[in-house]
Amino acid sequence: MSDRIFGGIGLVIAILFAWQASIIQESFLTDAVGPKVFPYIIAAVMGISSVYFLLKPDPEPHWPRAGRLAEIGLAVLVLAAYAELLPVAGFVIATAVAASYLTWRLGSRPVESLIIGIGTSVGIYIIFHLVLGLSLARGPFGF
């Protein structure tokens, strides 16, 4: 039964996601694909996966314990804080903090997590901003 509840919630979120994608304002300078395609793809994959859970639920699903659910909830809060912090702190700092926390919770040691977080942030910045020329959120230090 819990798989069907999970599938139903996922299907509602997929429909909401597709609806939100449909109201994205497109600029007259967008490329041929446009900004709506990727959200539509995500909504379609999530919707198909949710329908699978509705039609073929696991007879005895194994749900994580309360501690694991709390960690998942905290990771979601970190990602929400990342989205809020991104325009204020900039891409490099916000991404380094979020990536460091997430890699630490995935099992890395604290110092390793910090190095991985900073390396991930700087690496993505170099590829997307310096190589591809895409605009990323600037922080108080100009990057």
TrEMBL record:
Keyword field: Membrane, Transmembrane, Transmembrane helix
Boundaries of every DUF1468 domain copy: 5-136
One Pfam family cited in the UniProt record for this chain: TctB
Domain of life: Bacteria
Keyword Transmembrane attached: yes
Record field: transmembrane: 5-25, 37-55, 76-102, 114-137
InterPro entries per record: DUF1468
Name of this chain's protein: Tripartite tricarboxylate transporter TctB family protein
Biological source species: Martelella mediterranea DSM 17316
